[in-house]
Amino acid sequence: MGVNSVTFSPDGMYIASASYDHCIQIWSADSAQSTNRPLSGHDENIRSVALSSDGDTLVSGSDDRSIRIWNTRTCELGLSPLLGHQKAVTSVVISPDGSLIVSASWDRTIRLWDGQTGNAIGEPFQAHEGLVNEVSLSPDSQWVASASVDKTVRIWDVATGQQSDFSPLGCKVEVSSVTFSPSGQIIAACDSFGFVHLWQSENGRSVCEPLKAYETIASAARKVRFTPDETRIACSTYAAIRIWELVTRQQLLVIELGSSVIAYSPNGRFIASESSGNCINVWDVGTGMPVATIHGHGDFVNSLAFTPDGRSIISCSRDKTIRIWDFDAACSTSSNTAKGPVEALSSTQLIDGWLLGPSDELLLWVPFDYRGHIHVPPCDSIIAHYRVVIEGESSGLHAGEGWTGCWVNSGPTDGS
């Protein structure tokens, strides 16, 4: 089944993936091999996963209305399922110390849970009049922000369970995403009309007029992200990626290539985005120039993340695979040259079903069912039930004008 969500442990050593087959899998980032048995337990689609800062605790939320807590080292269920939501759990977050879990649901509520005991903390937060799309926890774990279809962002006091004095923060249309800035001083949200809203987290006052991230109403804003140093903010829409300087609110860059998935590199110099459904583009944030186009997935890319050291990009796709890409190799792919067919096979890219050589020569047509499982550079590792590896050896290789030598006539030899 397809991979729905993926995340790295803080030390970059493990990958946790959630999929539509109701399982969570823990993988070694070095070997791309499963470190233990799948974490089966949810009865339906897993929508969200979150890791504690030490990487020891994994929290998952599912359409089966439950939240589950796992020990990533032993791959055992740490506590009994956390039950209370009446509909699908859409978003989960965990505090840095692992003591607090926050969940949101289509039942229009937000719930708090004790990360050590699994007990519910207080009563559910109930004020939204529509399903809750996403929740975010402030860096100091004192406040929760929730984004809803009811056109509001609400800010909740973790200690009292009450809304802040300035909540709710209103938008004209559905709010798709909300996040705190790394310092916790700003709350950012994007709505389905393509506007990015910024508020001071201390008093709810608007930082500025909403930033315009759209050209047409159909180009709805999807996600908003801060750079790690909090100097810039980016918003992705179906038409473009727009980046603003946070202090001046000046638009610095427009990348005219729509994307519903974006991720910043740890140093803030690069931004990765899905493009054309099944490929990944990497852009230089300073110039807006593309530095790499990565092909390999056989279907839409659902999620992207840089590893903590910035040396790799991780992606998951509807093709049921998780792939780890060598960032430096991806950036240098276009400069590769091959002296022969063996070298060409070692530097291929999969584009529109064709394995292409370094000069875009056609090497091999790959049937659709295999494209999600084929392992070609700059992919370092592929996590899937199956892997197809393309290799070439000089001995017995039929290439160029001699390609017909691979044909073996197995028909009748008696002339009949």
SSE blueprint:
Blueprint: E1 3-8, E2 14-19, E3 23-28, E4 39-40, E5 46-51, E6 57-62, E7 66-71, E8 76-77, E9 82-83, E10 89-94, E11 100-105, E12 109-114, E13 120-126, E14 132-137, E15 143-148, E16 152-157, E17 169-170, E18 175-180, E19 186-191, E20 195-200, E21 211-212, E22 221-226, E23 232-237, E24 241-245, E25 251-255, E26 262-264, E27 270-275, E28 279-284, E29 290-295, E30 301-306, E31 312-317, E32 322-326, H1 327-332, H2 341-345, E33 349-351, E34 354-356, E35 362-365, H3 368-371, E36 374-375, E37 379-383, E38 388-389
Parallel strand pairs: 36-38
Antiparallel strand pairs: 1-2, 2-3, 3-4, 5-6, 6-7, 7-8, 7-9, 10-11, 11-12, 12-13, 14-15, 15-16, 16-17, 18-19, 19-20, 20-21, 22-23, 23-24, 24-25, 26-27, 27-28, 28-29, 30-31, 31-32, 32-37, 33-34, 34-35
Short summary:
This protein has 416 residues and is mostly beta strands. Helix content is 4%, strand content 45%.
